[in-house]
Sequence to fold (554 residues):
Amino acid sequence: MSNLSFKKSIILSIIVLLSFLGTQVSAQNTKENPLILDMVHHNPGEAPYKTKYNNPATIKEMGYNGKVYFLFESPALAINWESVDKDILPKGSDDRKWVDEKANQIKKMHEASKAQGMAIYAMSDLVLFPKRLIEKYAMQETFGDPNNPLTEKLIRAQINEMFDQFPDLDGLVVRIGETYLHDAPYHKGAIDDKTDPEKTIVPLIKILKEEICIKRDKQLIFRTWGAFDREMDDYMAVSDEIEPHKKLIISIKHVEGDFHRSNEFSKVIGQGRHRQIIEVQSAREYEGKGAYPNYIANGVINGFEEHVSMREERINSIQEFVDTKPELYAGVWTWSRGGGWEGPYIKDELWCDLNSWVMAQWGQNTDKTEEFIFNRYATERLHLKADDVAKFRKLCLLSAEAVVRGRNSTYRDMNPWWTRDQGIAWPMVVKGELEQKRNLAQKDESIKKWKQIVKLAKSIDWKNDETKNHAIGSSEYGLGLFQIYRSLVYMKYADDHDDAKGVKKWIKAYDKAWADYNKLAEEYSTIATLYTEDYKRHIANNAGIKVNKLRKEN
Fold:
């Protein structure tokens, strides 16, 4: 070989090596290359959603680089435990057959994501063990304690089997705030002292960090929700005790508590030493699940209007978070569909698609404004022209204003849990005449805004008749539902003030609102299933029952 040829060979080898190393670096999650994840949160105990977001190719095209598989798609339910004890799930038993079938199902899902080059994550409730294991080792009282030596040993074995038996898995998303067992007939879950950093959170993270991040160089995303997301002292206790690691990320919902408007922006975002990924629900479970226009991406990115008067000295949006603490920003994790229970069930995914797409695109391009990303959606995905882009943006911004005023108020004058999923409870309003009058006024403002939304939907030149039908129909859906809300809040006010005439007036308005709302499907074929008067799941004081009592009394 000539010297020239030898030099060319060396140079070529260096180029190939640098290219390989560049690929490896870009594959690592950094602030320049954030994780943009999506999950479909299937309703526990029901058939999984049939949605385009189940397809890794779809969400990749939207801008995501990873997929989080839901709780009942987790390898935690699908390992065979043979490395521990072959008798835990003996071959031929019903539970072993179930586990093996679950494993085959999950591996096919992982293959689909791998084929698209998508990172693969699984959300898992911990601690979660087979019932046979718990019974065999008499752990009924101890398996929820990560400090228990046997529990710790089995958690470590469980992690090893998950990554050994599912080698395409890039990381785990761990939840301790709740434990769902609706689709896990052969497993049992528990977690002791889930809000205690010293007793539970820190010991568990240390175990998982060692097994996942250090030993395997895999990703651990640990969720704060329901555990250490609301008390700053608790969050900082965890942050101070757990040494940061490149493969450890803390996951935080963008608002405190659950995904309710008028809840404060999360005080722990931007705090501590660990990188954070921000959770965003695109089809809001307390706000129709995508049944009506409800554009929340602007509020999440730039700050909701109700946050202006809250804690001005702290971060109130994820744009502020990225601007002030860029070293802690790890990415965005959306739930494109799901959360909560049962309906409404949507047929057209327009409104959750808008929220998901904008969050995914902005999450990887945080130097761009939300409005810039939004306008791209309007032109690239909806094919709207200039004037119609402006109308569509106005419609979407109005939807955020209408929703917060109709369900609550910009001052949080109502308990946010009074309506959820497909049900409505008797309104829960704070005491105080000023607050109640302010709340009533905002219900009127909400209806005015919904009427503007309907008018705008009818004025836009949509790309086809199907989109037009749904945009108008879903807007009418929002107007109809919020007229029901308004009548109930006014009815409660009249009842609280012994105004029999007012009660009768608002019962009449309530009946008309329901009648109009129930007719919507006759004209609009793609609207979601409707809210129902008799729905009681997680509804403590059903509004329909209360109204019927008032009919008899007045």
